[in-house]
Amino acid sequence: MARTFALIPAAGMGKRMGAGSNKQYLMLDGMPILARTVQTFEEADCIDAIYLVSPEQEIPFCRSEVVERYGFTKVRAIVPGGSERQHSVYNGLRALEDIEPDDLVLIHDGVRPFVSVRMLEEACAAAREAGASVVAVPVKDTVKVVREGVITETPPRETLWLAQTPQAFRYDLIRAAHDEAAAAGFLGTDDASLMERQGKPVRVVPGDYRNIKITTPEDMILAEAFLKEMK
Ligand SMILES: Nc1ccn([C@@H]2O[C@H](COP(=O)(O)OP(=O)(O)OP(=O)(O)O)[C@@H](O)[C@H]2O)c(=O)n1
Ligand SMILES: C[C@](O)(CO)[C@H](O)COP(=O)(O)O
Fold first, then answer.
1. CATH class (in words) of the domain with range 4-230
2. What is its EC number (predicted)?
3. Cβ atoms < 10 Å from Cβ of 65
């Protein structure tokens, strides 16, 4: 029976947040953002094991303040990250132990704490059928392509979606996509794009406008508001 491994990159520096400390440990209603994220994976029956990726020097802190403090039993390892998100994910993929080609890997940003069990289940089901899936939401605004301060294109909105995470893949497919991207020196901003450049199909699964990536200070205000409403 194929298993599902979660890989949670949390090795960024949080430069755009400008908090002076890593944003994955900022508190949301008394709980670090990263712990809120991991909690959903811990609760989801479809997830067998969790691997976290952290800056190497923060691994002991991550272990004590997230894994041990909240008693997460599915976390198998905390892997050192790299200079870009893609490098961190690649380190994580290479660290997965006893993984088989047809096992699933579900990759999710450590700073998207509003992921739900529903999204995890649907992303997994779609990846089992299609090999790869991405949780996404339709764009609400009109998007312009701008070059040197001038609009060069207005792509039809019905074709535009915002890619979120989780993104789920059969292990052999995403491993091959990362191996090839690394060999070619290609850097993408998400994992699905590495499969897209190989011409492989990636299915879209409904995400949620609340499944935000906490990136800049105003995202913390939104996150607090979402939490307040959920109480
Ligand atoms: N070298 C990196 C960069 C990012 N990430 C992780 O990828 C997710 C999405 O990245 P982003 O929001 O861009 O985080 P940061 O890189 O920390 O932000 P910034 O670009 O503002 O520094 C986060 O969970 C982040 O910790 C990572 O594991 N390794
Ligand atoms: C993977 C991702 O969350 C999809 O939206 C996103 O691309 C990562 O964001 P970053 O700001 O490029 O690190």
1. alpha beta
2. 2.7.7.60
3. 15
Judge whether residue 20 has pLDDT over 90: no
List pLDDT tens digits, range 93-141.
999 999 999 999 999 999 999 999 999 999 999 999 999 999 999 999 9
Tell me: pLDDT of 1 over 90.
no
* 112 contacts 24 by C-beta, under 8 angstroms: no
Among 8, 109, 213, the mutation site with the greatest number of ligand 1 atoms within 8 A of its Cβ is 109
Atom number in ligand 2 closest to CA 190 = 1
Give the pLDDT confidence of 41-64 residue by residue, as tens digits.
999 999 999 999 999 999 999 999
The Cα–Cα gap between 48 and 67 comes to 16
- Give tens-digit pLDDT for 163-194: 999 999 999 999 999 999 999 999 999 999 99
Q: Could you tell me if residue 148 is left (phi over 0), alpha (psi between -120 and 50 degrees) or otherwise beta?
A: left
189 exposed, middle or buried (CB, 10 Å; 0-12, 13-18, 19+)?
exposed
Q: How far is the CA of 213 from the centre of ligand 1 (A)?
A: 10
Domains of the chain by residue range: 4-230
- For 80, other C-beta atoms within 10 Å of its C-beta total 16
Residues 174 and 164: beta-carbon distance below 8 Å:
no
